[in-house]
Amino acid sequence: MKMSIRNKLIILLLLITVVPFGSSLVFTFLYTKESLKDQAIQENKQLLFQGKVNMETYLRDVSFGMISLYNNSEFMSYVRKSEVDDHVSRMVVHNVINTLLYSDESVYQVSMALINTGERLTASRRSAVVHTYDIDDTALYEQQLLKTKANLYIEPQNESGRLTIHRAFKDIPADDDLAYITIEISMDKIAELSQYLYHEGKEELYIFTRDGDMIMQSSPVLPEGTSVDWIADLVEQEEFSGTMVWEDEAFDGVIIYDTLADTAGGWVVAKRIPSQTLYESAYGVAMINIFFGLIGLALVIMATFFVFF
Fold first, then answer.
1. Which one-letter DSSP state was computed for residue 203?
2. Averaged over 93-102, what is the pLDDT?
3. In what order do the strands lie in the sheet with 152-155?
């Protein structure tokens, strides 16, 4: 049975309206999806950069007191001596330690190992300055400090959940070590700065050293099956900032990262964004476009049948 001319015209009209209209919806969705993805990545890179700058500023402020000691002539004179001096001279070091201890509310403890005299002076918020002669562990600090040109090494969280900042105090302009100054700080400020860098429940934030030692993570306990192999891959990247696509059984998405300056510990700040979160806004826009597109398509079809019937 031959198809009537009217039916052929109906089919032809539907084809030349529905196919282009439907194709435009598909291409619009794909273009919008990639555009919003690129926009989201760029916005997150800027957010991570600003968070990195804030952390650098905070860590430099905390350690600034150690650097300013080079301008203290009495302190410099004391640490250069090879013998323990009188009580009056020692009070200079006491004052320095107490100044560092109360330089910031996050500082919990300050310790100073004097190389020439073999002394260790320690003070905390709960105790006065205590003198001991156990500086055997300075070899570990020296080994770690040799890895950086900034004479600074930040040890990951200890059992009390605090960070430890180690700085080598040099006999400038020579390169000899006079002392190792250690400041133990709470993680409260770092945690506060970090909470603005990710959406809890949708994204993950990690801070770790270039050796892969974890400083902090947004989730205290990683979900079962979560792999940290991506950290090993990331620290091998030549760039200090950028993006990395990662897919495994537990995660499928993009990792955005940036690196603090060596003078602030050289940490890596990484943010993991699942594809579902990354494309969330794209899907929303696409649904709106499809909704109105279907309305328009329905009107075209109705108009076509109205003309021929």
1. B
2. 89
3. 127-132, 120-124, 107-114, 177-186, 162-170, 152-155
Rg (CA), the chain: 31
The secondary element (H helix, E strand) that includes residue 208 is strand 204-208
Domains of the chain: residue spans and CATH:
34-56+199-281 (3.30.450), 60-189 (3.30.450)
Q: Is the peptide bond before 220 cis (omega within 30 degrees of 0)?
A: no
Question: What pLDDT sits at residue 23?
Answer: 77
Residue 56: pLDDT band (50, 70, 90) is very high
**Taken in order 57, 62, 68, 70, is the CA torsion positive or negative?**
negative
Residue pLDDT, tens place only, 156-175? 888 888 998 888 888 887 77
Helix intervals (H) in the chain: 5-67, 73-79, 87-101, 138-145, 188-194, 229-235, 275-278, 280-308
CB 156 within 8 A of CB 213: yes
70 token code pair: 């080079």
Rounded Cα–Cα distance for residues 269 and 216 (Å): 10
Mean pLDDT of the chain: 81
C-alpha to C-alpha distance for 135 and 113, rounded to whole angstroms: 6
d(CA 256, CA 271): 5
Let me know: does 84 contact 119? Beta carbons within 8 Å: yes
Distance CA 156, CA 191 (A): 14
Note the pLDDT tens digit of each residue in 244-278.
999 888 888 899 999 999 888 889 999 999 988 88
